[in-house]
C-alpha cells in the first residue's frame, strides 16, 4: 500500500464527518427552504433528497466502471448492499423515533412496495448470476422509467403531489418585501448547489479512502462492494434521522409528512441506484472497454 494506513483512516473519518455536515447543514437545509418557497409536497421533497443522497454511489460506480470488469463487480455489490443498508438505516430511524405505527398507514403502501422491489431486484440479479451488459443496463433503465411513471400516476391519484402551502410569490408592488424574497430564494439555491457539490466530493473521498483501506487487507470484490455500500449510505442515514428529528414535537400531519419524505428518500435513492446509476456505470464500462481506457487507467 502506497499510503500510510493512519493517513487513510484519518481521511476516511474526516470524509465521514464532512458528509454528515454537508447533508445536514447544506443539502437538507437548502432543500427545506426551497420546498417551503415553492410549496413542494413531502413526497417531492423526499424524492429530490433521495436522488441527491445517491451522488456518492454514482461517484463510486463510475470509478469502478473505469477500472475494469473485476472492479465493476465491486460497483454492483456497492449498489446491492447500499439498497439493503438504506432500508436497514430507515428502519433504525423509524424504531429510534417510535414511528413504526405510521408505516401501517394505507397511504404508504405504494412506497413500501417500491422499496421491496428496489431491494429484491439487485439480490435476484446477484443470485441468478446475470452478467453485466448494455442489454441489462437498458432493462434496468426501463425499470426506473416504469417506476417513475407508475409512481407519478399513483401519487396524482392519491393527491400526494399537492402543495403543502402556497409558494412564496415575488410581489413587485411591495418594494422592500419583494427585495427580501428574491435574495432568500437565491441564497437557498446556492446553499443547495454547494451542498450537492460538497456531497459529491465527500462521496468521492469516502469511496477512495475506503477502497484504499480495503485493498490493504485484500478483500474479495463482493465484500469490497458491500463495505463501500455501507460507507456511501451515510447521506441516507443522516437524512432519515434529520427529517424525523425535525418533525419531533410537531403535529400528526407533520409527522406523517416526515415519514412520507423519508420513504420517498429511501425509494428514490434505491431505484436511482439500481435503475439509473448502475446502468450508467455499465455504459461507461462498455465505452471504456471499447476505447481501451480501462487498460490505460489500470496501468
From TrEMBL:
The keyword Transcription does not apply. GO terms for cellular component: membrane. It is a multi-pass membrane protein. Its main location: membrane. InterPro entries: NaCa_Exmemb, NCX_ion-bd_dom_sf. It is found in: Membrane. Keywords: Membrane, Transmembrane, Transmembrane helix. This is Sodium/calcium exchanger membrane region domain-containing protein. One of its GO terms (biological process) is transmembrane transport. The lineage of its organism: Bacteria, Bacillati, Cyanobacteriota, Cyanophyceae, Synechococcales.
